[in-house]
Write a structure and sequence with these properties.
The chain is mainly β. The protein is built from 4 helices and 37 strands.
Length: 514
C-alpha cells in the first residue's frame, strides 16, 4: 500500500511537471510563474536561472517608450476627395505643404484631415518630413477610404526618412564583463571616456565562427539555395540610450536581450548618429483598400502603410482590405513605433512564402497592440535579425493560413502577450526553409496566449525561448532533436499577472512617480 501511494504521488508530480502546473495554484488567486512573479506588495520579482538570465523588461517600447501618450495633433490642412479620377496629387500636395511648415515646440507641423469619401490612389503617397500626421474620418468603407487603384505591387502610403546609422569615430569601447546575462540593464566597459547620460549608443554583439558552429548553423541540411550562416552577416547592432554611468558601469534604457559572452566575441559599445531619420509622424482613422483582379492576383496594392527610418511615430485605427502583404509593415530602421487598434482583412495573393504578413515588424523597440487579422499567413511576425525588445500584445487572428512568431533568422527579444489565434505559434529551428533560415530566434516569450498548435524550442546556445500560460496543443516542430523551450502552465488558465507587458509598464510608471 505504501509503495502504491508513493507511485500515485510520483505520477501526480510528473503530470504537474509535464503541464507546467505550479504547486501553489489557487483557483481564486490564479498562479504565478517561476520566471516572473509578484511580491507581496504587488511589485514584480524576476527569478534568474543558473547563469543569471531573466525574462527581460519589455515595457520600454512603442511611441516614446510608453512615456508619452499618442497626441491629438491640431489640424492645419483639410482635404476633400476628387469628384472624379485620382486624388493622389491632391493629398501629396497637402503633405508637401504641411511638411514645409515650421515645427512647433513639440516637433509637430500639423495634421492633414482627409474628409470622409473615396480617394483613388494609382501610385503611392509619401510622408518624408517630421511632425506630419495624416488623419481620416473613419477606418471603414463609409469613412475615409484610400484605394490603391490599378496594377502595381507597391505600398499605398510610405512614411520614411533618409540615411542610416553612423558610428561616431573614436567612441567604441569593449564590454569588460565575461558574461552579460539576458535581462541585464548594465555592464562594465573598458572606458567611459567620451560617454555621457543621454548618448545614443549601439550595443554591438559580433557574429563569430564558433558561435555559428555551436548553433549548428554551419550545417543546415542543404537544398537548392540553402545558405549556411556567415559570421559577419550576424553582427547585431542594438540601439540604446545611456541612462546612468557609475564608475566603469554603463546603464542603458533597455535591457540586453540575449546572452553576451567573451567566448563568442563579447560585445562593444559605441555612439551613433542617424541623420535623416524622421520623428513625430502618425497615420490614423483611415480605411485602406486595394483593387485586385482575382483572389490570387499579385500585381496590386501590397502594403497599406509602411514605416522606415522613423523614430517615435504611430499608426492607429486603420483597416486594410485586399492587400497582398501587410496592413502595417515596419522596416529595419523603424524604432519606437506604436501600431494600435487596427485590422488586416481579406488579403489577396497566392498562399505561399513572402505573402500575407498582416502586421510585420523588422525594426527595434516597437509595440503592436489591440490588432486583428483574418486570412493572414504570418499575422504577427518578425523578419531576419530583428532586434528587441519588441512586443505584440492583445492581438487576435482568425482563419490563419500559417503561423505567428519569429520568421526567417534569429529574431532577438520578442514578447507575444495575450495572442489568440486559430492557427499556430512557432519558435523553432526552421532548418532549410527559405534560403536556410535556421534558428528563428531567442528570448522569444509567449505569455498567456492561445493557439491551435505550438512549437517552442530553445537554441543550442545564447539563451532560451518561453511558453508561459499557453493554451493549445504542444507539438514537436519541424525538426526533431532540438532542445525544448521553457514550458510552464500548459493549458492552465489564471496566470498572474495576466499580461506581462501591462504589469511591467504599470510598475515602471509607478516607480517614476515616487
Amino acid at each position: 500500500m505504501k509503495n502504491l501511494l508513493l507511485a500515485c504521488c510520483f505520477l501526480l508530480m510528473a503530470s504537474s511537471c509535464a503541464t507546467g502546473q505550479q504547486p501553489n495554484v489557487s483557483p481564486e488567486k490564479g498562479w504565478s510563474s517561476k520566471y516572473v512573479s509578484r511580491n507581496p506588495d504587488g511589485s514584480l520579482r524576476y527569478h534568474p536561472d543558473a547563469k543569471g538570465n531573466i525574462i527581460p523588461d519589455f515595457s520600454r517600447v512603442g511611441y516614446h517608450q510608453g512615456n508619452k501618450e499618442i497626441p491629438e495633433v491640431a489640424v492645419v490642412k483639410t482635404v476633400q476627395a476628387a469628384k472624379s479620377g485620382s486624388s493622389q496629387e491632391i493629398i501629396q500636395q497637402a503633405i508637401e505643404e504641411v511638411s514645409a511648415r515650421t515645427p512647433d515646440k513639440n516637433g509637430f507641423r500639423g495634421a492633414i484631415l482627409l474628409k470622409k469619401g473615396t480617394y483613388h490612389i494609382p501610385g503611392s503617397l509619401e510622408i518624408k518630413a517630421s511632425g506630419v500626421v495624416l488623419r481620416g474620418e473613419g477606418d471603414n468603407a463609409e469613412g475615409t477610404k484610400l484605394v490603391a487603384t490599378g496594377q502595381g505591387k507597391r505600398s499605398l502610403l510610405e512614411v520614411k526618412g533618409q540615411g542610416s546609422v553612423k558610428e561616431v569615430p573614436n567612441t567604441r569601447t569593449k564590454i569588460n564583463d565575461a558574461f552579460v546575462p539576458t535581462g541585464a540593464m548594465s555592464f562594465r566597459v573598458a572606458s567611459v571616456a567620451g560617454l555621457k547620460v543621454g548618448d545614443k549608443v549601439i550595443l554591438f554583439r559580433p557574429g563569430t565562427t564558433n558561435w555559428i558552429a555551436d548553433l549548428k548553423m554551419n550545417q543546415i541540411e542543404a537544398k537548392e539555395n540553402t545558405k549556411q550562416w556567415q559570421p559577419k552577416e550576424y553582427d547585431l547592432h542594438f540601439q540604446r540610450t545611456i541612462t546612468h554611468i557609475k564608475g566603469s558601469e554603463v546603464f542603458l534604457d533597455n535591457p540586453v536581450v540575449m546572452e553576451m559572452e567573451t567566448k563568442y566575441g563579447g560585445g562593444e559599445l559605441y555612439k551613433y548618429t542617424f541623420d535623416g531619420r524622421i520623428t513625430e509622424v502618425g497615420v490614423e482613422n483611415i480605411y485602406f483598400e486595394s483593387e485586385f483582379a482575382n483572389d490570387e492576383d499579385e500585381n496590386h496594392g501590397w502594403v497599406a502603410v509602411e514605416f522606415n527610418r522613423v523614430e517615435n511615430g504611430w499608426v492607429r485605427n486603420v483597416t486594410s482590405r485586399y492587400f497582398g502583404y501587410s496592413c502595417v509593415s515596419l522596416g529595419n530602421d523603424a524604432k519606437q513605433i506604436t501600431v494600435i487598434d487596427s485590422k488586416s482583412l481579406d488579403p489577396k495573393s497566392i498562399i505561399m512564402g513572402g505573402r500575407r504578413y498582416s502586421f510585420n515588424n523588422d525594426g527595434q523597440l516597437n509595440l503592436f497592440l489591440n490588432l486583428h487579422a483574418e486570412l493572414g499567413r504570418h499575422d504577427y511576425v518578425t523578419g531576419q535579425k530583428v532586434l528587441g525588445p519588441n512586443v505584440f500584445y492583445n492581438c487576435t487572428a482568425t482563419k490563419a493560413q500559417s503561423d505567428i512568431g519569429p520568421h526567417h533568422r534569429w529574431g532577438v527579444g520578442t514578447l507575444y502577450d495575450n495572442i489568440t489565434t486559430d492557427g499556430e505559434i512557432n519558435i523553432q529551428d526552421r532548418g532549410n526553409w527559405g534560403s536556410g533560415h535556421g534558428w528563428a530566434g531567442v528570448t522569444q516569450v509567449i505569455w498567456n496566449s492561445q493557439a491551435k498548435k505550438v512549437t517552442v524550442q530553445s537554441p543550442w546556445v545564447s539563451g532560451k525561448n518561453y511558453a508561459i500560460g499557453l493554451q493549445g496543443q504542444k507539438v514537436e516542430g519541424r525538426l526533431k532533436g532540438r532542445p525544448d523551450g521553457e514550458w510552464e502552465g500548459l493549458n492552465q488558465t489564471g496566470i498572474q499577472p495576466s499580461s506581462l507587458y501591462q504589469a511591467q509598464l504599470q510598475e515602471r510608471k509607478a516607480k517614476s512617480l515616487k
